[in-house]
Amino acid sequence: MQSDAAAPSPSQPLELFASPDGVLSVGEHTFRCALGINGVIDADQKTEGDAKTPAGRWQLRYVMYRADRRPSPRTKLPVTTISFSDGWCDDPGHPDYNCPVRLPFDASHEKLFRKDDLYNIIVVLGHNDDPPVPGKGSAIFMHIAKPDYVGTEGCVALAEKDLETLLGLATFETFITITA
Questions:
Q1: d(CA 168, CA 180)
Q2: DSSP designation for 45
Q3: Over 50: is that where the pLDDT of 173 sits?
C-alpha cells in the first residue's frame, strides 16, 4: 500500500473512504486499516459495546495526541494534548455519554492515556455526537493500529505513518465515509 497522497484542490475538501475489507482510500491512494472486530454495521443499528464500526459519513472533528510520546501531528484540524486525566464517557445512562470527561469519573468510561501506543494519536469522528443518542455508540475514533491490524472496538485504525499522512492533508471540512 502507498503512504503518499496528493492534497485535494482548494475547492474540493478531502474525502476518505473506508471499505469493510480494511482499505482506506483517498483519491488514487490506499492505506491498510483495521475496523471493528465484529465488522461494519449501519449506523442506525449500531449499539454500545458491539465492537462494530458504524457505516456512514463522519466529519473529522479534532485531534488528540500524547505529547509525552510524540510531537504534535501536522494538520489543519484543531489539536489538543491527552493528559493522564482524560477519558471518554461510554455509559449510555450518563448525561456525558459519548463526550470527553475528566478522570476520576463516576460512570463507565474509556481512559485515553493508555499504556500501549494506540492512542498516541486520536482523531475524533463526528459519529453520534450532535447530539449523542444513548446506546448508539461512543468513542468512535481514528487511531493507530496494532502491528497485525487486528480488529478494533469500532474505530478505524491505521499505521502511525499513514495516519500522519492523512492528517497532513485534512481540514475541518474533511469527512470519512465508511461503507458496510
A1: 27
A2: G
A3: yes
